[in-house]
Amino acid sequence: MYSKQELEEVHQRILPYIHKTPVLHSSLINEISGTELFFKCENFQRMGAFKMRGATNAILQLSKEQQKKGVVTHSSGNFAQALSLAAKSIGIPAYIVMPSSAPQVKKNAVKTYGGIITECPPTLKDREETAQRIMKETGAGFLHPSNNTNVILGQGTAAIELLQEHPDLDLIVTPVGGGGLIAGTALAAHFFGRNCKTIGAEPFEADDAYRSLKSGNIETNETTNTIGDGLKTNLGDKNFPIIQQYVSEIIRVEENEIIEALRIIWERMKIVVEPSSATALAAVFREKEKFRNKKVGIIISGGNVDLSQLLF
């Protein structure tokens, strides 16, 4: 279904529009974890998160006619910003449906990147109905933030770059939200790694992916009381089969473990990352024996933090 060549073509296609982000490491964090960690820092990506990759690839795969009419999505966070900036870079309109409850800082960022915002009540039903109305009015095509094949393949390019620099990684750990990043990463690890496994990290407070892997069906969350605000979404029918086939396991972490990992990254690496990103390091700290003396890649998914809401 997927091939190494297909992933290579995706990477080449988006290269003119993205940053090749740095891979950092910390001797002290290696010491604490008992393993060798390599952080792929997508917090330095354009618009501050890995989602720029998938948004760009998805737009570039549209026909010229489709591109002229623009793209639409509903998102309160990073994908709204990514799609807005990717569309602006390629020269097409982006219509963004945002819940009225979305932080002003995120609405401001979308506007800065040229996104045309329509606000709606903060329910999934309202978001979907508003997006449908805009599609009818404009002819714009809908792009899902995580359950779209071209988005998934684009997200996998972060892991491709990580493995180009460190081809001998034993494991790559990523946070799990809607499933696009982990699915793309797992494909990249399978095709570009040398027996490199992919592990997901997820809060106990939003552990739908963990339960989905156990049950074999896409599960949802009753509550999502987590500081990892990018991890509250559910898996989809495009990414779940990839996760089932290529992801080894998902490790769940407590809220205090996410905060501790976040603090260590800020203090020791001197980089700004969002709580969702710290979930991957929290998983390594929680299951030290599993990772001991391995070479481990960690995808730092983003750095879009509302500085008025710092946890420490």
TrEMBL record:
Organism of origin: Autumnicola edwardsiae
InterPro entries found in the cross-reference section: TrpB-like_PALP (IPR001926), TrpB-like_PALP_sf (IPR036052)
Keywords in alphabetical order: Pyridoxal phosphate
Cofactor(s) required, per the database record: pyridoxal 5'-phosphate
Tryptophan synthase beta chain-like PALP domain mapped to chain residues: 15-302
Cleavable signal peptide: none
Protein name in the entry: Pyridoxal-phosphate dependent enzyme
Entry keyword annotation includes Amino-acid biosynthesis: no
Highest taxon of the lineage: Bacteria
Entry keyword annotation includes Transferase: no
